[in-house]
Amino acid sequence: MSSSQQNLSVAELPPPKQPLPRRPSVANSETSSLSRRSSSSEQIPSLFTPATSVQTGSTSPPVSFSLPSHADTLDSVDEDIQEEEEEEGDEGTDSASRPAPILTANQYVEPDMLMGVSMGFKPPSISTILSPMGEAMPNIITLPYGKAPTFHIQSPSWRHLLKLMARLSGTRVEPTIEALTVAKDELKLRTVIQFVKIHHSASEWRTVIYLTTDMPVPPSVTNSHKYTNGDVTVLPYSYTLSPLPQLLRDGADSPMAKYYVVPATNSTPYPTLPINFPNLAMYLQSAVQVSRKAAHDGSSGLRRLALNIDTCYPRDDGRPISTDFSDTSRSLGGMFKRVINRGKTPRGRGGNEEIYDLVTPFVPDEWG
Predict the structure, then answer these.
(1) Reduced to 3 states, what is the DSSP secondary structure of residue 110?
(2) Torsion angle (degrees, nearest 10) of CA 147, 153, 157, 162
(3) Can you tell me whether residue 257 is helix, strand or coil?
(4) Per residue in 269-291, pLDDT tens?
(5) Is the C or the N end of the chain the one with fewer CB within 10 Å?
(6) In what order do the strands lie in the sheet with 140-143?
(7) How far apart are CA 348 and CA 296, in angstroms?
(8) pTM > 0.70
(9) Most confident option among 64-73, 212-221, 316-325
(10) Cβ distance 130 to 115 under 8 Å?
(11) Which residues pair with 196 in a beta bridge?
């Protein structure tokens, strides 16, 4: 066969059929549409990016905003849902494991009751201005044994101190673990009451009490009997083991300060630690009762406490009382009486006798 015939036969063959174009699916259409939109968004940045970059510092890179792809959007939604479920699970676990806060009566003390109040082992600072209490009200006050600083509580007045302590049923005084280890017998509380004038030309006084654990006097100490004979002007023996607070260095009766060491008597023995603040207020009020009973006993120094209170706070005498202790009485099981307006002081009572209405008499069998 000649070459011309071969060429003719090849030319006569029909051309191969071309495959028909496939119709794009919906998913591919959406993907291509999104890709076209994404590419168009890159070409026209003014539609999706701000005109200027947002920077937080001189070296911060520009922050731009762009639309995510459809697949990225679905993945992002799934991740957000998963993170929310995990967070909800964590919150539920935390709320179940986290203990509820413990509420005490200290949280319901009126803010004005904490004006001019200070506590701590640092020496008290006497000011002419009544400022709010700088630190939080403690629930537990631990007293060391032996050589250690004294713990003080300062208040604007004697009546203010008793009223405040009556409300602080969530606070108690107790010895440290070291004190319990060292002491052979149960530990007792020693209290020193002081009244300090705010300025030499002023007539206003502050009330400060000092708290320590009782420490036996060693037999080798010279004149050891003066610490045990009930002298209300002699500080406890433990005060000789540490630097004396500045306010106590001028003696028991000076123009600027007066102090009274609460002695142990048949009706008011030293309280046993631990003791809460309402019971401590009862003990202090009982010491005032003992002092008033000894008002006509010139040979005893017990009357000094009542005289100091009447001298430093004469305006309290005969002043009507309008403080309502009904809530405190219920919370403490009737320990404190409800105080109402009583007018003038009844006959037979000395100055400042309205403090008898704040607490009931001290019962020695409970704490002695």
Answers:
(1) coil
(2) -110
(3) strand
(4) 999 999 999 999 999 999 999 99
(5) N
(6) 140-143, 172-175, 275-276
(7) 13
(8) no
(9) 212-221
(10) yes
(11) 206, 257
